Batch of 2 targets.
Target 1
Amino acid sequence: MKMSKLFVQTLREFPADADVVSHKFLARAGYIRKLTSGCYNYLPLMWRVLKKIENIVREEMDAAGAQELLTPFVQPKELWEESGRWEVYGKELMRLRDRHDREMCLGPTAEEVITAIARDGLKSYKQLPCNLYQIQDKFRDEVRPRYGLLRGREFIMKDAYSFDLNEEGLDESYKVMAKAYENIFRRCGLETKMVQSDSGAIGGSVSHEFMVITTTDAGENDVFYCDGCDYSANSNHAISNLPEADTDGSKFGFNETKIIDTPQTHSIEELCEFLHIPSTIILKSLVYIVDKKPVIALIRADKEVEETKLMNVVGGIDIRIASAAEIEELMVEKGFNAARGFIGPKGMDGITIIADKTVKDLKNFVVGVNQEDKHMVGANLSDIPAIEEYYDIRLVQKDELCPQCGKPLKVTRGIEVGNIFKLGTKYSKPMNAVYLDQNGKAQPYVMGCYGIGISRTAAAAVERYHDDNGIMWPVQIAPYHVTIVPLNNKDELQMTTAKDMYIKLLNAGIEVVLDDRDDRPGVKFKDADLIGFPYRITVGKTIVDGNVELKTRATGEIDTIKPDEAVEKVIKLVKEAL
Ligand code: ATP
Ligand code: MG
């Protein structure tokens, strides 16, 4: 490809709405252009990257025994009613009507469609296991489309669905997919961590996410991991053991139960300061709204609630902390008069109360009693409504202890590029998707599903590999492997050398861009760095001594070598990487 012909327009500035590195560089380097909120045109450079990722995914999925198919982007409401998701899937589901007033949606995922395909085709135990996948655009009307390709509304996903006879079969399919994912991300030049994750309200299910660990702001997930063993989990699923703490208020003089004045103590810090106590002897009561209903969460006050865990205990699909107005409304309803900071579980009959496991060990503690500027001290569990069960709704914090080996946990940020999920019979049962077993009895398939964000993976690679000057693609997914930059294209020797190398590289199957533009060297270098070609061969004045420069983008290393050596070296480096 000649640079003069390549469809790429680099920008001087980052787009104003880009707030993460990958969005900034992909836009400025001419890979993507926004069409409308959360929807991007993938320009030729981007499309090459995406196709490379797709091809790696395809090869590894095929090698793992999965079969590719393609389903329509628009899906009928009826199928979603069969699974029961038409009602529960929120506003992310883009619903529409056709001219006959039939309701449909833009596919955000394809469990229903592919389960229906399996139901039509997989009738006998002899046909199982089976794994079907596609690489397709998905549409989700995300609340906050942001971060460019990392969280778009329309994006490219590989989604696979496995159908097995039983749980053991699913375990095996799941393992095969985990291995395929490892291969995929390694071949994309990306290191990933496979971490345990939340699998929604369906109890007992297992799921893992593949995270690209990144130091940029774009990592939306906290990943807790242990150096001492292989434990690692998304914060929405992580558990930990707690170091010893003072949890008995009698140590701080609270030996009898009484209500005392605690003026203006709206926060835990203020309360601790006022009473000269650690927060470990306070029971904190937080009001959440889960699926529009108030829920009170109880937890030891030095800890935070993990919202996904709480939501799963309640069995909801939507959670947020209550506003001041909602708390006031609740107080009025229950005949109290207290604001945030003074809320407590007593007198909240009819409201769901969920207690964290940390509550169980509290003795002679401090707790709100729904009276402004007052707290109960020296309280015990008998002083609050009876708690039948204690749950883990606690957000893990750094340096708490690994649940497997007891070493202090570490935390890092990660971008989820893929996930694998044991669905069991969640879809096959309601959709009556069954096979006949050896005894001729109908059994629902035991299913798994496996997603990879193709476009998100490309963006995650940019988050992971860049410097101030631009992108540093891993060779495996770079749009082109190498660029040849003659510094002065009026110089005949420079141009003939450059063209000669260009032909040799092309013939060797190397993807090469010859920068034949009549521009200043500075402009050409800037573009080469911004676009992120893994290698750059510069043909300048040293060509009179028979030398060119070979620069490696990732390391900045420069070799001064003969043109033929540069060609050989690039061929070798690229072949080794692929
Ligand atoms: P997230 O928690 O990031 O919203 P998810 O749990 O909704 O992801 P899945 O529904 O399992 O993700 O989708 C499979 C994969 O598709 C994800 O692992 C991710 O890589 C990708 N993906 C999901 N949502 C988006 C999006 N809005 N933009 C780009 N890629 C996405
Ligand atoms: Mg999502």
Target 2
Amino acid sequence: MDCIFCKIVAGEIPSNKVYEDELCFAFYDINPQAPVHVLVIPKTHIASADEVSPENSAIVAHIFEMIPKIAVKAGVTNGYRVITNCGEDACQSVKHLHFHILGGKPLSEQMA
Ligand code: AMP
Ligand code: ZN
């Protein structure tokens, strides 16, 4: 499968890793939109939030357990925003589920 984030997990494309365990991988976004901008992805290919199911939701729960630790590891000290873009209207550009962690400054009150 031609998936850029699967290739990052496999080490075929370089990334700036923040955290890794058996289920998830976290790395800095190549085009940061905040002083701290980290992406957290499942190691297995899940296309988007639309594809979360009883079979894979434990991975998503695990990711949410890890997000606070990943945020601290990335230097966030005063709060952060977690975003997942799903589908066309949300401008999802990479079709492998990912959670953006944004922080390091006061963020906009607008979300859209
Ligand atoms: P989205 O628009 O929600 O699908 O987000 C995809 C994100 O992946 C964007 O913020 C991109 O900057 C980021 N991205 C794309 N390719 C890479 C890469 N090779 N390494 C790190 N981040 C990437
Ligand atoms: Zn993938």
